[in-house]
Amino acid sequence: MVLYATGFNAWNQLQVEENSSVDDPDDISSFTCVSRNDAIETVLPFFSYTRVRDNGTLHQYASIRNLLSNSPSHTFPNFPDITQLVAYETGFAALSSTGQVWTWGDERYAACLGREPSDDSPADTPGLVPDLEDLPTGPVIKLVAGGYVLAALTAGNDLYCWGHAGRSPILHDLSDTPSPVVIDDKDIVDVAVGDAHMLALTADGEVYVTGDNANGQLGLPGVRSTTTWTRIDLGSVLDAEEAVVTGLVAGPRNSFLIVRKQPD
Questions:
Q1: Please, are residues 153 and 140 in contact by the beta-carbon 8 Å criterion?
Q2: Which GO terms describe its molecular function (predicted)?
Q3: Residue 20 above 60 pLDDT?
């Protein structure tokens, strides 16, 4: 696997394979190869909340110290079979094996829940997102979140986004309920969300970005931010013509392209 990265690099954290002697390194402003290592399996560049699932009960701890000291946790029993659990700025979201999406978090930022809190389904308790049920292109297969924005990808390669528009510069038409996102009428096969930016990978291997670029996280030199989807010129980024982007990852203020070579 070949790994390309761009964005926040204040502590040389994007220098994967070698240590840099630069005491005050610059951010990386365009996608740059940082590793060629077939042993790399996953890339997880994010700040994580502590969460544990055990025997059908979801346990939420206030901190890692609480977990290690066996302090009481907030529990949600009889939870469905969860395949993904993600954290955003003010809450959490979970994806079940059947494609159902559950959200919970701070009621003051109810727009991130994608549902209307009620006495029967309060904000701080996992509740189903009804607008992601019975979608025309199949169930949700991937869930991502960052900052105040969440995104869901369906089995039929449709993308849905929602969140707190006032807190995020990612999309100009961001809604508080899941809404389809159209990018040049293309099928979307992967998506990643940072604190205030987003990336999308299309079925034909193109990469589009939107949001904040103050640290170069969009890989667009000279652009401060954008609220419209902008295509990355991969021809000027990838070293070999046969290399193709197969996955995306976003940290809070940086982005990664997972690149593999096509078989001979």
A1: yes
A2: guanyl-nucleotide exchange factor activity
A3: no
Which H/E stretch holds residue 68? Answer: helix 64-68
CA pair distance 143, 207, nearest whole angstrom = 18
Mean pLDDT calculated for residue range 221-239:
93
Quickly name the fold that domain 80-226 has: Methylamine Dehydrogenase; Chain H (2.130.10)
Longest dimension (CA), the chain: 59
pTM of the full structure: 0.89
Which residues partner with 5 through β-bridges? 32, 256
Domain extents in the chain: 1-45, 80-226
**Tokens in use for 33?**
């190869």
Distance between CA 44 and CA 144 in Å, rounded?
12
Q: What's the mean pLDDT in 115-141?
A: 96
Spatial CB neighbours of 109, under 8 Å, sequence gap ≥ 6: 89, 90, 91, 148, 164, 167
Enter the DSSP assignment of 85.
E
Cα–Cα distance measured from residue 77 to residue 58, given in angstroms and rounded to the nearest whole number: 6
Q: Residue 264's pLDDT is what? A: 61
